[in-house]
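ok trying this again, last paste got cut off
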Amino acid sequence: MKNRPAGQDPDGPQNTPAAQSTPDRAAATGTRSTSGTDDSVGGRETADADDSAGGQETPGAEGAEGAAGVRGVGGAGGGADVGHEGAGARRAADVASSAASPARRTRRALRWVRRIALGLVLLLVLPLLAAETALRVNYSGDLADGTYTRGQDAIWLGHAWVDGRKKDADVTALARRLRGTGIRDLYVHAGPLEHDGTLPKSSYPRAGWLIPAVHRALPGVRVQAWLGDELATESPDGMRLERARTRVAVVTSTREILAAGFDGAHFDLEPLHSGDRHYLGLLDDLRAVTRAHGVPLSVAAHQIDPLPAFHSLWGTLTNHPKWWSQAYFAQVARRVDQIAVMSYDTMQPLPSLYGGYVAQQTSLALEVTPPTTDLLMGLPFFHDNRFGHRAAAETVPAAVRGVRLGLTRTDAGRERFGVALYVDFAATEDDWTAYREGWAHRS
């Protein structure tokens, strides 16, 4: 989510919360040879060119030998000449035949290449068209009454809130913006963590001002520390969760930031591959710390496989699995108090397809998230145009309808459910209006 230009606070450090081309080859080489000989024997004219006109491209060996036989009927003085001519004709036939054979083989090979290419295109395109059609169908249907905010929503806030750039007037404006919505949690960027898991206290110098200011202006709203880092799963640089000392350092950093007064810890570590057991072990250790402080442990989660084992296929093709299996998502959800799905950057080209995708993701997440864990679905409050994200397609209205459709079909009465808005410094008035009118109003 947050390893992208749209996820960067333009005024300060920003953690990363949250392809392909197929070459076509075609070569054709052809050699075509025609030859003809006019001989007059006893008043008869023979011409290989006549055979060619009759549909033969090159004279065959039999034709050459036949011509040699005709020449052999001549007078006594022409025997040697006839023999030479016959041998020459046979050689010419052999050369023509050998020249034609590679051309025929090339044409035959080219036909097979074209057939295989067409088969591969159909193999890739037909399932894609079927999947996109299913998403469009998934975007249709009626919405259940009451599928609105439950007062469990959240928003990601940039680093400016803890580094000294924001003032009392900004807190007042934020409070005015959030009143009457369902937002209960603020994920305030207080990192990023160092690659070794440590977190300098200089990263959040104004936390002591922000937290009480928010509590005064917005009673009941929690200020969680948003921490994270890039993992060394797809590049040589980044945090390595397989190192025990790194995981210990992350736990220590969490203790320190909770001691600074934050109301919870929200983690976003990316790219995190499905099945990572070191991450699960880290969550177990972190939850022991947050429970001791009486605050929630929250995480940003990858999307769930839209098709079974799709992350494995995509990882093989791109070295970036992107999705988690539904089983792994469930393992993570059981270890935390709150899980926010980064349901954007979906590669969808149209709002209806994106909305259908969000509806699918909502259903998949609802199916395996324990009722004791808050489940939040991400809304795209940013407007990048790049591979994986098309701003005109990934809109807040489409996402909100998708969330409501998934909720309607899977668990319309679930209380511990909400949406999470990414990110405050990139949001527009239209984004806020769509959130309020589509989700945050209560009727």
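PB: full thing came through this time. The mean pLDDT is 83.
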